Amino acid sequence: MHQFATSSVKPGGTYAQLADRRARQVLRPFVTQLGEWNQRAARASAMILSRASSGADRSAQFADLRDLLDEVSRSYEEFERVVADEPAQSRIADVRSAFIRLQSTLRRLRAD
User: Which of these, 65, 16, 77, lies nearest to 38 by C-alpha position?
Assistant: First the structure.
């Protein structure tokens, strides 16, 4: 039986398990940011839709949404660069979909 002295892979570990572990490591910062951005978008949306908000408050929230969309778009481009050399993996597809949904939501909120 061949032992890999320098590998952290357990004997019997599959390529899929390695790919999954690698994807989680690569995606962790993006997933964290997506959670924070979704919270910011929800707060801004609630403020915009609130009848208690003044026109100035709404204007500030629309500006925040514009800035947030720019930030998310830049991060999405970075995400695509980072995962370009990674093997196809469902976690990567899930994060890509989350980015696209968030961008779509932010664009829709800005248009309202």
Answer: 65
* Interatomic CA distance for residues 20 and 26, integer angstroms: 10
Residue 80 corresponds to which tokens in the numbers above? 């695509």
Q: pTM for the complete prediction?
A: 0.77
Strand ranges in 1-112 using DSSP code E only, listed in sequence order: none
Where does 1-112 have alpha helices with state H? 15-49, 55-83, 90-111
Q: Digits of tens for pLDDT over the chain (112 positions)?
A: 444 444 454 555 687 777 778 788 889 999 999 999 999 999 888 888 877 778 888 888 888 999 999 999 999 999 999 999 887 888 899 999 999 999 999 999 877 6
Q: Which residue type does 66 have?
A: R
Q: What is the spatial distance between Cα 100 and Cα 80, in angstroms, rounded to a whole number?
A: 12
Structure tokens at 2: 């061949």
